[in-house]
Design goal:
- It is a single chain.
- The chain is α/β, with parallel strands linked by helices and 719 residues long.
- The chain folds into 4 domains: 154 residues, Rossmann fold (3-Layer(aba) Sandwich); 93 residues, no CATH class; 375 residues, no CATH class; 45 residues, no CATH class.
- The protein contains 31 helices and 8 strands.
- The strands form 2 sheets. Strands 2-3-1-4-5-7 form a 6-stranded mixed beta sheet, with helices on both faces. A two-stranded antiparallel sheet has the order 6-8.
- β4, α3 and β5 form a beta-alpha-beta unit.
- α16 runs antiparallel to α24, α16 packs across α27 and α21 crosses α30.
- The C terminus is likely disordered.
Length: 719
């Protein structure tokens, strides 16, 4: 087996090519940080097996962020392997910058030019470009699979096309400006010869040292036991710009002879005048989100969920009837009816809504709007110690907190990474959709869309406030680099959308088939047996779960839902948030897939799970939004940020969930009792008083007095 490394700039189609070669379904997206670690999979061609390694996107071989360090280290460890450098045909000038960096360091490069869009800026003569660079060049379409056989044939070649034998003209020119005696001492060259990377090639080493000096790559010289300050003093202060200009001048020169420009504008769209407008950007984002939520939770999503619920009910009824006929309405019947068909089918009926949410997230990614969202929020996040990179991670939290936490590792700063990971669970993940739909739908009806939208935004607001507090206290972030490129607006690929949907649907079904069934059976057992291990039929005794729930009831009574069954469902939800709804279905004895009946049962005082008012419902929904995430997310937190910060984040989540739910309950309860306008006037008056005190305090603090006045700092500015 021969390993091949796949490298390229972000948004060049690298992971798409990886998927096409290996028939995989790895996540792709048009922003920096989608791939945060290496992935390796196999493919065969002409009887030979290849292992292709997908690396995170990079712009050069001087890493700035975590994922760039991963890519560069992987390249250095696999120097003797072929490197497929994929370039976007429409960003060829910029993408070839990385190609030159690879050639400078002697990698065996195969250049794959990816035709992403129908309208191409450049039409490249691959033979001329191959001759100019001294490497193989091939055209591919990573998404459609065009040109992959040509690429595979090149990979089958045994000979090494480039092994430090490509000398780029500007390298010699730059090195000529530096005298060898000033720059390379014998000790440095002696140390270098011990390193297999340079294979005792003095000329090559001198070239690399000259380039690294111009790039001011500190890590390189530290590895060679060289004082980088002395080296950097031998090059101009603007050496980085000089080297970059030399590379781009060389790129322009070879493109003049190898490529024909067919289109002068790429990535520019008149739509950005509205989407990125400082006044319209945020309202447009809210409208896009509201439209997606309306189709997901109502309209299309509600219709498909009802249809699936009815289908599941039709499947379950004959099975339950057969069990009842043969074994009677006892232990086995209750287990199947309540724990498996009742609880699991209720959650399973929400599969269409979860699939729709992932579909809309996929559309935002494919169309190029996700990068614009990062730009919109970059300034806001910068004020709380984060960067635009965090937007991608937090938006992924709307789908799944576990996978979102994993992508937090692409932060440049350790504190920013820790903050971003801690904030992910505050984004309302797809697992909470059944809770919002069932509980909120029972009390708010069609207005539930505003409740759901409010919950999503509340999670974002709480996350921002917590990040601000952490940044001002224990997790102060450094300035971070954030390179952002706007891809052109593109239509969604139905093939990719189908792959994304199937992958997420499969994961949901696997979770339902493993974790949820197991957890529902455990919850049912604890709710069906007493501490003396006696079987307790519904309403005919006190179960283990009821006793535990009643013990915890006083803690949650101030939040408006001091009900043992509600508290028990929250405890079960720590394993997986979908279990909250399935537990409620079990406690209320609702049959499989009967979502509307389950919502109606929440209004009945005779039900185990019962809400007395809209205020208590809002409090419950807010608590579900903010309290401890699922076990999988907690496990990922521990892996990414360590045990100490994981425990602290859980404590913060519980505290914040309790406090915010308490405040929401008190306000909502006051609105119900006294009316909206009266409470609004009181809140407004309180805010005015606090504002007045704040203004007065600021005035007093800023005022400077003479040396004889109380509190004077001795620097009187009054004249």
């Amino acid at each position: 087996m021969r390993d091949v490394l796949l490298v390229g700039n972000p948004n060049a189609g690298k992971t798409t090519l990886f998927n096409s070669l290996t028939k995989s379904t790895e996540h792709t997206g048009n922003w920096h940080g989608v791939t945060v670690d290496t992935k390796k999979k196999l493919f065969s061609f002409q009887g030979e097996e290849f292992g292709i390694i997908d690396t995170p996107g990079i712009y050069s071989l001087c890493p700035l962020s975590f994922e760039e360090k991963v890519a560069v280290e992987t390249l250095q460890k696999n120097f003797d392997k072929k490197v497929v450098n994929i370039c976007d045909n429409n960003n060829l000038q910029r993408n070839l910058y990385l190609t030159l960096c690879l050639l400078e360091e002697g990698f065996d490069v195969v250049l794959a030019i990816n035709e992403i869009d129908k309208k191409n800026i450049f039409k490249v003569d691959c033979q001329k470009l191959s001759a100019a660079l001294g490497i193989d060049v091939v055209y591919v379409n990573a998404e459609k699979g065009d040109g992959l056989d040509d690429l595979k044939k090149i990979l089958c070649q045994k000979e090494v096309k480039n092994k430090r034998n490509v000398v780029l003209p500007y390298v010699a020119e730059l090195k000529a400006k530096m005298e060898k005696s000033q720059f390379f001492d014998e000790k440095t060259i002696k140390n270098a010869k011990k390193n297999d990377l340079f294979q005792k090639n003095d000329v090559f080493f001198e070239n690399i040292c000259a380039l690294k000096a111009y790039e001011k790559d500190e890590n390189f010289f530290k590895k060679q036991n060289v004082d980088e300050k002395i080296v950097f003093s031998k090059v101009p202060q603007n050496s980085v710009e000089i080297l970059a200009k030399a590379r781009y001048d060389f790129i322009d020169k070879i493109l003049e002879g190898c490529a024909k420009r067919t289109n002068d504008v790429y990535g520019h769209s008149k739509l950005d005048r509205f989407v990125l407008n400082k006044w319209l950007a945020f309202p447009i984002f809210v409208c896009v989100l509201a439209f997606a939520f309306y189709l997901t939770f109502f309209s299309v999503g509600a219709f498909l969920s009802d249809a699936l619920g009815n289908l599941l009910d039709l499947i379950a009824k004959p099975i339950l009837s057969s069990v009842k006929a043969h074994f009677g309405q006892g232990f086995l019947f209750d287990l199947l009816n309540v724990a498996i068909f009742g609880g699991v089918s209720t959650v399973l009926s929400f599969l269409p809504q979860i699939a729709l949410l992932f579909f809309f997230l996929s559309v935002l990614e494919d169309t190029g709007y996700m990068s614009r969202i990062a730009f919109i929020f970059e300034d806001i996040l910068g004020r709380i110690g984060l960067s635009g990179k965090s937007v991608y991670t937090l938006l992924m939290g709307f789908g799944c907190s576990t996978s979102a936490i994993m992508t937090s590792r692409n932060m440049d700063d350790k504190n920013a990474k820790t903050k971003t990971a801690i904030l992910c669970p505050y984004m309302s993940c797809s697992a909470k959709i059944p809770i919002y739909t069932v509980v909120g739908g029972a009390f708010f009806g069609a207005k539930n869309i505003f409740v759901i939208l409010g919950l999503y935004f509340l999670g974002v607001v709480v996350a921002i406030l917590i990040s601000k507090i952490l940044d001002a206290t224990v997790l102060k972030s450094k300035n971070q680099t954030f390179i952002l490129e706007f891809p052109p607006y593109r239509s969604t690929s139905l093939k990719r959308a189908g792959i994304v949907l199937w992958k997420n649907v499969k994961e949901f079904l696997l979770r339902v088939g493993s974790i949820m069934i197991s957890m529902n059976v455990i919850v049912w057992l604890f709710s069906s047996f007493s501490f003396s291990f006696e079987y307790v039929a519904q309403g005919q005794g006190v179960s283990i779960l009821e006793q535990v729930g009643r013990f915890l009831t006083p803690i949650f009574a101030p939040l408006g839902f001091g009900n043992w069954a509600i508290i028990s469902s929250l405890l079960a939800g720590i394993v997986a948030k979908e279990v909250v709804v399935s537990s409620i279905a079990m406690f209320n004895g609702i049959d499989s897939g009967a979502t509307k009946l389950l919502s109606a049962s929440l209004l009945l005082p005779t039900s185990a799970v019962f809400f007395s008012s809209r205020a208590s419902v809002l409090s419950f929904l807010v608590f579900c939004l903010l309290y401890t995430p699922c076990i999988a997310s907690v496990s990922m937190l521990r892996y990414e940020i360590g045990r100490k910060w994981t425990i602290l984040s859980i404590l913060i989540q519980l505290f914040v969930a309790y406090v915010v739910a308490f405040v929401i309950y008190q306000l909502a309860f006051a609105f119900e009792i006294f009316g909206f306008w009266q409470i609004f006037a009181i809140i407004l008056a309180i805010l005015c008083v606090f504002s007045a005190f704040f203004v007065i305090f600021r005035k007093i603090k800023k005022k400077k007095t003479c040396a004889h006045c109380f509190g004077c700092d001795g620097k009187c500015h009054l004249k």
